[in-house]
Amino acid sequence: MTHPEPTLLLTRPEPQSRDFLEMCQMRAGRALPAVISPILRIEPTGAVPELDRFDTIILTSANAVTCLADRADLTGRTVVTVGARTAEAARDAGAVATMLGQDASELIAAAYRIEGRAVFCRGAHSRGEIARHLRDRGVTVEEVVIYDQVEQPLSSAAKALFKGKRPIIVPLFSPRSASILANQAEIDAPLTLVAMSNNVAAAWSGPGRILVAASPTADGMCDVVIAEF
């Protein structure tokens, strides 16, 4: 008996979901069945810091890059990031960007590479107390919330997937998205969760099989997703 092909359900904001789907399809060499239903909306909020006061800008997501670059000129500014894709986005915005790790713990371990006075521009929902840990390591850093991650309801297409019988694969990139999805979804379908880290996996309270990526990167997530098709 042939098992039905799974559907990939992507719940990140639309641009990130489309980028990840494109990565998976390129890796697979074909189109993959997919539904995009963002459960978070990125909304700029608060005042942009006066960047001339700082020697280094710390950014841990492409959303932070976009929200800052839309309201300030990053040309020539020194930026350190979590993740290669965040660094690439910052370079595209004109910054001189360096990746200091794939996750927050690696950034903190590389604190000695952060020069001068720094500002950490982040979302309203942030884990890991990055600024506090950097201060403990001697970095002079302020933190400024420049965007909010606003919860969104699942689309009707996503709800139908969960109530159906076709297998679903859901990549989970953050503990908050895992928690929101578990609270929203009424799940009957066979479900595989692909978590970016053990912390993300621990935030999932619903049913299903959980796989954790070998590395906390989009590439690492893509490896696990493709292996399930």
Describe this protein's structure.
This protein has about 230 residues and is an alpha/beta fold. The protein has helices at about 15-30, 60-70, 85-90, 105-110, 130-135, 155-165, 175-185, 200, 220-225, and strands at about 5-10, 35, 40-45, 55-60, 80, 95-100, 115-125, 140-150, 170, 190-195, 210. Helix 1 (about 15-30) links the parallel strand 1 and strand 2. Helix 1 (about 15-30) crosses helix 9 (about 220-225) and helix 2 runs parallel beside helix 3. It is elongated.
Summarize the structure.
The protein is an alpha/beta fold and 229 residues long. Helix content is 34%, strand content 25%.
Question: Secondary-structure map with pairings?
Answer:
Elements: E1 7-10, H1 14-28, E2 34-36, E3 40-44, E4 56-59, H2 62-69, E5 78-81, H3 84-92, E6 96-99, H4 104-109, E7 117-123, H5 130-136, E8 140-151, H6 156-163, E9 168-172, H7 175-184, E10 191-195, H8 198-202, E11 209-212, H9 218-227
Parallel strand pairs: 1-2, 1-9, 4-5, 4-7, 5-6, 7-8, 9-10, 10-11
Antiparallel strand pairs: 3-8
